């Protein structure tokens, strides 16, 4: 049990800190400041509109998560959840009673439904940040590549993508392969196939979700962001090239 939690012996429930201490910092690069700023930016480029999409950042033993179902461009630091890392089990909504939080907002909010998906990037790739976008370029790519892989080559922006999302950068000579998984009615239910795809494609920097979007991660929030930008560019260009019959 961490310092911000205490257990009420009578009711046997965990009382979580709802103070703003863990999400208040004058440092603009503190995750609780960065998540609202990046979500605002992602909203302006169509990655996180209509409450969809988002980003989670891991700072050592803490994971910072945005709230669920809210206008992502209007999140404030005090709306951010803080979870301890690592945890023996991924924090699934279906295990709500046993999940541990270091900090919850004082107003009634739920943590992002993407939490178990972000967690897969932290656990399987040791990522420090994971971005989920609803970019139409990603969605179109999953429609024009009907199989279980998006493939593209001979484009300069491939050089901005890392092997596995966290290792060395790819070269112009390398073919980019991104696995595609099928969407599910509930976000949480994507976890199983996302984990399977990450294991089957250990060198892939992202996982596309058909008719939904993409999960991209990196060894830092900066790297996750620039890789997501390179991949989005490649999805957009791939779609245009395929429609122009020049692929
Ligand atoms: C427009 S609803 C989108 C959600 O179901 C989900 O796909 C999503 O990306 C965001 O989930 P959230 O729980 O709001 O963080
Ligand atoms: Zn989504």
UniProtKB/TrEMBL annotation:
GO terms under biological process: L-methionine salvage from methylthioadenosine
Cofactor binding, note field: Binds 1 zinc ion per subunit.
Region (Disordered): 1-30
Task performed by this protein: Catalyzes the dehydration of methylthioribulose-1-phosphate (MTRu-1-P) into 2,3-diketo-5-methylthiopentyl-1-phosphate (DK-MTP-1-P).
Positions annotated as active site in the UniProt record: 156 (proton donor/acceptor)
Assigned protein family: Belongs to the aldolase class II family. MtnB subfamily.
Sorted UniProt keywords: Amino-acid biosynthesis, Cytoplasm, Lyase, Metal-binding, Methionine biosynthesis, Zinc
Ribosomal protein in keyword set: no
EC number: 4.2.1.109
Positions contributing to substrate binding: 114
Residues binding Zn(2+), per UniProt: 132, 134, 212
Biased composition (Basic and acidic residues): 1-11
Enzyme class: lyase
Protein name (database record): Methylthioribulose-1-phosphate dehydratase
Coiled-coil segments: none
Cofactor field: Zn(2+)
Reaction(s) the record says it catalyses: 5-(methylsulfanyl)-D-ribulose 1-phosphate = 5-methylsulfanyl-2,3-dioxopentyl phosphate + H2O
GO cellular component, one term: cytoplasm
Chief place of localization: cytoplasm
Domain Class II aldolase/adducin N-terminal: 33-239
């Amino acid at each position: 049990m961490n310092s911000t939690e205490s257990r009420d012996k009578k009711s046997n429930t965990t009382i979580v800190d709802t103070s703003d201490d863990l999400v208040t910092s004058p440092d603009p690069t503190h995750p609780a400041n960065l998540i609202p700023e990046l979500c605002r930016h992602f909203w302006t480029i169509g990655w996180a509109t209509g409450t969809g999409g988002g980003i989670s950042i891991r700072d050592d033993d803490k994971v910072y998560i945005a709230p669920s179902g809210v206008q992502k461009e209007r999140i404030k630091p005090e709306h951010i959840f803080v979870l301890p890392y690592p945890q023996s089990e991924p924090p699934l909504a279906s295990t709500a009673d046993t999940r541990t939080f270091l900090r919850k907002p004082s107003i009634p909010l739920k943590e992002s439904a993407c939490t178990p998906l972000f967690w897969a990037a932290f656990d399987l790739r040791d990522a420090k940040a994971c971005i989920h976008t609803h970019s139409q370029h990603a969605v179109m790519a999953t429609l024009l590549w009907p199989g279980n892989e998006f493939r593209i080559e001979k484009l300069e922006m491939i050089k901005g993508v890392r092997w596995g999302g966290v290792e060395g950068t790819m070269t112009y000579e390398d073919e980019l392969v991104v696995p595609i998984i099928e969407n599910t009615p509930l976000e949480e239910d994507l976890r199983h196939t996302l984990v399977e795809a990450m294991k089957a494609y250990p060198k892939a920097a992202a996982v596309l979700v058909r008719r939904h979007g993409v999960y991209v991660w990196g060894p830092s929030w900066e790297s996750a962001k620039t890789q997501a930008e390179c991949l989005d560019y490649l999805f957009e260009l791939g779609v245009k090239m395929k429609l122009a019959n020049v692929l």
